[in-house]
Design a protein that fits this description.
alpha/beta, eight-stranded mixed sheet, globular, disordered N terminus
């Protein structure tokens, strides 16, 4: 997968100038030879160091970009996630999608297939429970399950991404397993959602890692071949 460069890097206001949200930790200088565990640690620290003001502006800027992209794709069934550990807040995006009549879905750990995810319809009254990682997920209800091939887009959380569209998650491999066959089926389209400070030059990759065709940050839309 090769980069085609950011599709857009202007027009959206950010809290700290034209290069998007800035962290107290400069992730552009991280040693690319760091272990995956150390990279995760450093970048999670970077996004947690963002001020409340910067976080708020970043959340709104990124949600505007993502809404524009989803509109261009005519996406009607969109899976995403609830914010955890300094990630871009998805609440503004979810509210906007609801207002537009777009159906939203959240992941939950699969109760029978270890390492896999299920996606359940999410609405304002959805009952939620914490999973084994302390992350809220929809209470299992087979009536709310959406087969993954019927989703238009899956917005994935991530810890880091590089200039080739490679994604680093938390290390559990849940999204890599769940999205392993998306390209052959053409659906759902995976899209990353991250702070600008989560971009690094290069990531160590394994053969099972699923690269992303699109990544949205507060200042940019990245598209990859």
């Amino acid at each position: 997968m090769s980069i085609t460069s950011p599709v857009s890097n202007t027009s959206v206001p950010t809290a700290n100038g034209p290069h998007g949200t800035q962290s107290e930790i400069d992730t552009t200088t991280l040693n690319p030879n760091l272990s995956r565990a150390e990279l995760r640690k450093q970048i999670r620290l970077a996004r947690r160091s963002l001020s409340t003001e910067v976080q708020t502006e970043a959340n709104l800027a990124a949600s505007r970009r993502m809404l524009e992209k989803l509109s261009a794709l005519n996406a009607q069934h969109v899976a995403l996630y609830l914010t955890h550990d300094g990630e871009l807040a998805t609440a503004p995006l979810i509210e906007a999608l609801w207002q537009q009549g777009i159906q939203t879905y959240l992941p939950r750990l699969h109760p029978f297939n270890a390492g896999q995810l299920l996606f359940l319809h999410y609405h304002a009254d959805s009952p939620m429970l914490p999973n084994q990682f302390g992350i809220l997920e929809p209470k299992l209800d087979v009536r709310s399950v959406m087969p993954i091939e019927r989703l238009d887009v899956v917005i994935t959380p991530l810890v880091a991404f590089d200039i080739k569209g490679n994604r680093m998650g938390m290390g559990g491999g849940y999204y890599d397993r769940t999205l392993a066959n998306w390209h052959s089926k053409g659906k759902p389209l995976p899209m990353g959602y991250a702070h600008d400070c989560q971009q690094v030059t290069a990531l160590p990759c394994e053969h099972w890692d699923v690269p992303l065709p699109f990544i949205i940050t507060p200042s940019s839309e990245w598209q990859f071949d």
